[in-house]
């Protein structure tokens, strides 16, 4: 372990950092004014913001926000400020802006109000309090720099960890103050985003066991595999290929294909949605291989929930914490509970041949057999809905979370500036590894040291994981040095690589 110091950009202060091993670094990262540890420095920073040069208010004309009207007001919202007085939230990823039409709107949330926009003209505007990023689109070399001291950053990322491994590293996730991810530890968890409702699970079995047994006698395999995205971090095809040696698997997708789909189902849109003919076709199988493309706590998709909806048994690999969310402790067959693909195949064969044991996995279709209180409470209490018009979607929900948090932070800053002896400064708010952290990809079957050097998976995903760490540290370095040009990212990454090679990192 080593200790070194960095200078806080523009603040003339050195803070200690600790380097942990080859890559890990524990040190200061910008979070907001709330992160300043002493009263004098905090006050000086607030004064500096008042003196700072920002874009003029005409960056967005009054007319652009003047006619914006909200259609909803939270039950605890008594905010009567005009649009000109409200803090602004900027959606940096404009394609995800959850409003139509136009690029700007007033939102009246649970306790306060904000203006939200996708117009980047307001990036440097003093009233722009927070910038929201979509994780899949977040790239260090496109980040809005310099990072302004009066702004927080918010992350929305409900997709696979493979889409941006930068966010799985501590230096990457620490860039953000607020998070909405699939992990339960995030500020605004989206863990059950693929589960519409409890009723979705309780839906009657689509194909009876009697029919499934008849189909088995007619040559239908006990196990279904349907994937067309083959080169993924979880390396699922390698596992399935080995499993196929010990049990019959009908594979209809592009990956390990051994059977053609009926012509009327060959349009890929039928598989991505829940088109009735497609759903009826796959419901004929007793077991569905449900292997996520990335392995990370709480990352669970339709691959898991759809078989449960249909009355099939998912054979699952993905979230290591999947049992925390299952209707009961006898719902899914978890691949990692078996020492080998052969052991799994033997178990599935026994279930296939024993109707009573197989039906135990479908007992959750009886409401009284759903015993997981965590699952029931999460479905009951989440404020956002899936295909539920009575609730906001999670995009609108998260922006309101950020709005209320920012109004509370700004109010605390004003109170502290006016009465420093009576009002405490707002507390730091920064994301941590647990908000998104996902492990280094590993082979779907076997040990990494046994793979040949030219293995396609080996050449892509472990390298992508470690290169994303370099990019995360590079962006953190840009912010620490108050750089304004994202193109300098590669220079910072090179400098860090040189320092690491010399044993100075």
Brief sketch in words of this structure:
The chain is α/β, with parallel strands linked by helices and 505 residues long.
Radius of gyration: 26 Å
Q: Characterize the largest beta sheet: strand count, sense, and whether it forms a barrel.
A: 6 strands, mixed
The strands making up the biggest β-sheet line up spatially as: 5-6-4-7-8-9
| Tally of helical segments | 15
Helices and strands: which structural class? alpha/beta
* Distance between the first and last residues' Cα: 10 Å
Please report which band the strand proportion falls in: under 5%, 5-15%, 15-25%, 25-35%, 35-45% or over 45%. 5-15%
Counted beta strands: 14
Gross morphology is: globular
Mean pLDDT: 86
Approximate helicity band: 25-40%
Number of domains: 2
N-to-C order of helices and strands: EEEHHEEEEEHEHHEHEHHEHEEHHHHHH
Low-confidence stretches: 1-69
InterPro entries: Alpha-1_3-FUT_met (IPR017176), Glyco_tran_10_C (IPR055270), Glyco_tran_10_N (IPR031481), Glyco_trans_10 (IPR001503), GT10-like_C_sf (IPR038577)
Subcellular location: Endoplasmic reticulum membrane
Pathway: Protein modification; protein glycosylation
Family: Belongs to the glycosyltransferase 10 family.
């Amino acid at each position: 372990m080593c200790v070194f110091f960095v200078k806080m950009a523009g603040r003339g202060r050195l803070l200690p950092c600790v380097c942990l091993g080859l890559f890990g670094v524990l040190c200061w990262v910008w979070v907001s004014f709330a992160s300043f540890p002493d009263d004098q420095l905090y006050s000086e920073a607030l004064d500096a913001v008042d003196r700072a040069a920002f874009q003029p208010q005409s960056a967005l004309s009054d007319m652009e926000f003047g006619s914006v009207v909200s259609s909803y007001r939270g039950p605890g919202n008594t905010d009567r400020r005009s649009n000109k007085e409200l803090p602004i939230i900027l959606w940096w990823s404009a394609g995800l802006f959850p409003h139509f039409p136009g690029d700007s709107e007033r939102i009246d949330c649970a306790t306060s109000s904000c203006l939200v926009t996708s117009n980047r003209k307001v990036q440097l505007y003093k009233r722009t309090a927070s910038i929201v990023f979509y994780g899949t689109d977040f790239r260090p070399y496109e980040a809005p720099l310099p990072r302004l001291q009066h702004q927080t950053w918010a992350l929305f990322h409900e997709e696979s960890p493979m889409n941006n491994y930068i966010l799985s590293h501590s230096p990457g996730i620490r860039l953000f103050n607020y998070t909405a991810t699939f992990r339960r530890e995030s500020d605004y968890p989206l863990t059950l985003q693929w589960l519409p409702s409890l009723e979705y699970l309780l839906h009657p079995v689509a194909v009876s066991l009697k029919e499934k047994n008849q189909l088995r006698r007619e040559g239908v395999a006990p196990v279904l595999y349907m994937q067309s995205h083959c080169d993924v971090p979880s390396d699922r095809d390698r596992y399935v290929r080995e499993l196929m040696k010990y049990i019959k698997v009908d594979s209809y997708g592009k990956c390990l294909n051994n059977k053609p789909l009926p012509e009327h189902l060959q349009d890929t849109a039928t598989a991505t949605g829940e088109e009735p003919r497609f759903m009826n076709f796959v419901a004929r199988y007793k077991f569905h291989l449900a292997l996520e493309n990335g392995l990370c706590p709480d990352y669970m998709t339709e691959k898991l929930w759809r078989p449960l909806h249909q009355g099939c048994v998912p054979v699952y690999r993905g979230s290591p914490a999947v049992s925390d969310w299952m209707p009961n402790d006898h719902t899914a067959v978890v691949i990692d509970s078996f020492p080998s693909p052969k052991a799994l195949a033997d178990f599935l064969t026994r279930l296939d041949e024993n109707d009573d044991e197989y039906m135990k996995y479908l007992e959750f279709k009886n409401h009284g057999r759903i015993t997981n209180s965590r699952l029931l409470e999460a479905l009951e209490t989440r404020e956002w809905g899936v295909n539920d018009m009575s609730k906001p979607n999670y995009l609108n929900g998260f922006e309101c979370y950020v709005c209320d948090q920012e109004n509370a932070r700004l109010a605390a800053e004003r109170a502290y500036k006016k009465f420093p002896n009576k009002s405490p400064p707002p507390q730091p708010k920064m994301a941590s590894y647990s908000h998104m952290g996902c492990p280094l990809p590993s082979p779907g079957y076997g040990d990494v040291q046994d793979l040949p050097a030219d293995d396609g998976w080996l050449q892509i995903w472990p390298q992508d994981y470690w290169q994303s760490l370099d990019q995360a540290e590079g962006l953190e370095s840009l912010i620490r040095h108050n750089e304004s040009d994202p193109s300098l990212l590669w220079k910072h990454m090179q400098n860090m690589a040189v320092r690491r090679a010399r044993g100075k990192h």
